[in-house]
């Protein structure tokens, strides 16, 4: 059997295939004490990795929609059945138009093209995706550790089965992946990673066959790699960085570019520099041209679709990027990098959000935390020196590719090219963790080579795998519900106002207002400009009739953020309750000014006008609400009731029929229209609507009571008596029903006396 290989040479000679004898990678032989030969065949290695990856995160399969899932899935209009599929291509990941000032410009149309609305479906797919990606990583690590060697039939040889298996297992069980796997929003990261690695492996196939000139090149595979990179980018922005990694792989591994040798020749003015094989390699230059032009074209198209404006983030999202001093920004960015590195090294302190005071700014070089970024750069510089200057070509290749996978996919999240909307985000480490696994596996191999305590190293490796698996299981459980997720963050980021805010919101949704108030107050204390916490706290205080404090909080919120439409509307509701009608009207108008399409605000404005007996204005406001939101049941109901109460029965009937055409199953609209029809003596139609409303909501006392009134008028006294009694059973305190029932009983008694 002929074997074609890309040899691991120490010089920068011209690329070309050479017949070679099958030889396992050096690193792999250093790990033979950890994995027995029986699990080394690729099929079994992939089976083990896939099962381990699924087991680690299986606990999250029945989790709820948590944290960002609600905004991205539940409340995302783009995922609703009636929304045209084409809208996905014009909106950001959260459903906002890319041209909007509030858009995050996260153009990711692919992750939810096929979406269900039950959380279990999302979670199961995410778990399977991570399992599939982990299986794919066996091939990726096999290339990184063992190089590219092919048989004459084009089959790639697995020359580093132990190293690739260990690295794939480290990747599969890394707890930092929990957010991507257990959180539904992580679908974007998982799909991005899938196409990212397919692009890399596709690029490797460009060197599967040799041509007549001895250059390993295949335009098809290079173009396919660019296409898959573009698909990865349409899942998440990091995906485009695979083209840079492919270029690094081609130059340093395929072209065997030796930085140390080049520098030495430049310093000694060696004339042989002009004849470097890499510079004369037409295939390499052609592939670099394809990668560069393809990447530039993809980025241009994306930039055109997104619009030229950058996303608008606030200081609380990324405080370091708003620092006036460039030195302060640089120090804090580097500190963030060190925290990301620590999360890869020791993924024990994990948090769903790292913003809002979780990581206080470093404002001086005297801050002890500067030691962390010094340690980071000490390690990185040491690794870079070894990667570029080592005389061991195998070591140089592995370290270079490990650093490439660690650094290049992280660049979009680094704040170097544009401001990002977070401080630290575990989800962006899914791709860089590949580089970490490469470096860690290489480190274990180096330790094993230079020590006699191989069993100790094997125990450490297996211990790390086991501990990480346990951490994944525990962390997956925390991501199953918002309450567990938010409370788990308290021990990690007790100074994070958003953590307290989310716990408060979760408690408020469950009806525990007293506890919610405590957490909202703590969120405002930690961040005195946290307008969303002020708004939610003001709402609860309003419901508890603590109107003065509610007004103070909401007034402060709109002073801090004048375009906060929801706070303006809630302030108007409070002012309306305080009988400050002019101020309330002004607040509603301000809310509509800042959010023109605000049906709920028009509804509340209509209620204000109704209280002031400005009936025409009330009807107009409610009509605006229904135009903006045709399914706004409360606005339709109020229009019907107001027209009914003012004697405009024909108009009330017309509005009621219009509303039921739009919302045919709304029992409250059936009830309101039935009342109007009864007064218009259309008894048969009114009865049908009452019965339909009662069928939909059989425990509504007023439905039975008003149907009894209809029968009373209609002369069906036995039916009237029946429904009066049902109504009083459901609500014994209803005075009107009691009075009408009393009148009916007296009438029935008189009729009995006449019969006697």
UniProtKB/TrEMBL annotation:
Annotated ranges, domain DUF1736: 309-381
Residues that span the membrane, as ranges: 127-147, 159-178, 184-203, 215-234, 240-263, 284-303, 370-389, 401-422, 428-447, 456-477
Cited Pfam families: TMTC_DUF1736, TPR_16, TPR_17, TPR_19
Keyword line: Endoplasmic reticulum, Glycoprotein, Membrane, Repeat, TPR repeat, Transferase, Transmembrane, Transmembrane helix
Functional pathway: Protein modification; protein glycosylation
An MF annotation (GO) of this entry: ATPase binding
Superkingdom, natural source: Eukaryota
EC number(s) given by UniProt: 2.4.1.109
A GO cellular component entry from the record: endoplasmic reticulum
SMART domains, alphabetized: TPR (SM00028)
Topology in membrane: Multi-pass membrane protein
GO terms, biological process: endoplasmic reticulum unfolded protein response
Subcellular location: Endoplasmic reticulum; Membrane
Ranges occupied by TPR repeats: 497-530, 531-564, 565-598, 599-632, 701-734
Role: Transfers mannosyl residues to the hydroxyl group of serine or threonine residues. The 4 members of the TMTC family are O-mannosyl-transferases dedicated primarily to the cadherin superfamily, each member seems to have a distinct role in decorating the cadherin domains with O-linked mannose glycans at specific regions. Also acts as O-mannosyl-transferase on other proteins such as PDIA3.
Family, as annotated: Belongs to the TMTC family.
Name of this chain's protein: Protein O-mannosyl-transferase TMTC4
Organism: Rhinopithecus roxellana
Taxonomic lineage of the native organism: Eukaryota, Metazoa, Chordata, Craniata, Vertebrata
């Amino acid at each position: 059997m002929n074997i074609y290989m890309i040899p691991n040479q120490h010089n920068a000679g011209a690329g070309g295939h050479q017949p070679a004898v099958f030889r396992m990678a050096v690193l792999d032989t250093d790990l033979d004490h950890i994995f027995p030969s029986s699990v080394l065949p690729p099929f079994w290695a992939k089976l083990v990795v896939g099962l381990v990856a699924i087991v680690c995160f299986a606990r999250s399969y029945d989790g709820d929609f948590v944290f960002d899932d609600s905004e991205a899935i539940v409340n995302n209009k783009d995922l609703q059945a009636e929304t045209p599929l084409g809208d996905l291509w014009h909106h950001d990941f959260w459903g906002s138009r890319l041209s909007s000032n509030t858009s995050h410009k996260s153009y990711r149309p692919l992750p939810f093209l096929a979406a269900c609305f039950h959380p279990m479906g999302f979670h199961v797919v995410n778990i399977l995706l991570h399992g599939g990606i982990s299986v794919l990583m066996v091939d990726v690590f096999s290339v990184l550790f063992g190089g590219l060697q092919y048989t004459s039939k084009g089959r790639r040889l697995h020359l580093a089965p132990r190293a690739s298996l260990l690295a794939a297992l480290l990747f599969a069980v890394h707890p930092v992946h929990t957010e991507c796997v257990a959180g539904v929003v992580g679908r974007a990261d998982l799909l991005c990673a899938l196409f990212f690695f397919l692009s890399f492996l596709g690029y490797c196939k460009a060197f599967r066959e040799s041509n007549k000139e001895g250059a390993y090149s295949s335009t098809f595979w290079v173009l396919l790699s660019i296409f898959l990179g573009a698909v990865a980018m349409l899942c998440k922005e990091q995906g485009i960085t695979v083209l840079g990694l492919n270029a690094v792989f081609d130059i340093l591994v395929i072209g065997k570019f030796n930085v140390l040798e080049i520098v030495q020749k430049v310093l000694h003015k060696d004339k042989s520099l002009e004849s470097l094989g890499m510079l004369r390699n037409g295939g390499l230059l052609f592939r670099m041209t394809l990668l560069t032009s393809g990447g530039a074209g993809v980025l241009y198209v994306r930039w055109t679709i997104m619009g030229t404006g950058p996303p608008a983030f606030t200081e609380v999202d990324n405080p370091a990027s708003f620092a006036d001093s460039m030195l302060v920004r640089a120090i804090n960015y580097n500190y963030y990098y060190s925290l990301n590195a620590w999360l890869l090294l020791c993924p024990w302190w994990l948090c769903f959000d790292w913003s809002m005071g979780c990581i206080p700014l470093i404002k001086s070089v005297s801050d002890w935390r500067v030691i962390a970024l010094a340690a980071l750069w000490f390690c990185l510089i040491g690794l870079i020196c070894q990667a570029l200057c080592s005389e061991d070509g195998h070591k140089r290749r592995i370290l270079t590719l490990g650093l490439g996978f660690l650094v290049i996919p992280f660049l979009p999240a680094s704040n170097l090219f544009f401001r990002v909307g977070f401080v630290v985000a575990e989800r962006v480490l899914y791709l860089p963790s590949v580089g970490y696994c490469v470096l860690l596996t290489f480190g274990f191999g180096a330790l094993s080579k230079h020590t006699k305590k191989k069993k100790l190293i094997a125990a450490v490796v297996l211990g790390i795998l086991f501990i990480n698996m346990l951490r994944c299981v525990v962390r997956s459980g925390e991501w199953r519900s918002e309450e567990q997720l938010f409370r788990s963050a308290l021990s990690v980021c007790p100074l994070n106002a958003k953590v307290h805010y989310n716990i408060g919101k979760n408690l408020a949704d469950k009806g525990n207002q007293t506890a919610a108030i405590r957490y909202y107050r703590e969120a405002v204390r930690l961040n005195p400009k946290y307008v969303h916490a002020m708004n939610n706290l003001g709402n609860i205080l309003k419901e508890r009739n603590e109107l003065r404090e509610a007004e103070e909080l909401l007034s402060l919120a709109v002073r801090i953020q004048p375009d906060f439409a929801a706070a303006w509307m809630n302030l108007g509701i409070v002012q309306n309750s305080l009988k400050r009608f002019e101020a309330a009207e002004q607040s509603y108008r301000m809310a509509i000014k800042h959010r023109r399409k605000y049906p709920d605000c028009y509804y509340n404005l209509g209620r204000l006008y109704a209280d002031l007996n400005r009936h025409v204005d009330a009807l107009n406001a409610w009509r605006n609400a229904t135009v903006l939101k045709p399914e706004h049941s409360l606005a339709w109901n109020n229009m019907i009731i107001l027209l009914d109460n003012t004697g405009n029965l024909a108009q009330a009937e017309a509005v009621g029929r219009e509303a039921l055409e739009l919302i045919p199953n709304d029992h409250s609209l059936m009830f309101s229209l039935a009342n109007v029809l009864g007064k218009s003596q259309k008894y048969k139609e009114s009865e049908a609507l009452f019965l339909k409303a009662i069928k939909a909501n059989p425990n509504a006392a007023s439905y039975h009571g008003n149907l009894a009134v209809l029968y009373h008028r209609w002369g069906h006294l036995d039916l009237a008596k029946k429904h009066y009694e049902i109504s009083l059973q459901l609500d014994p305190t209803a005075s009107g029903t009691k009075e009408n029932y009393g009148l009916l009983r007296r009438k029935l008694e008189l009729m009995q006396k006449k019969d006697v």
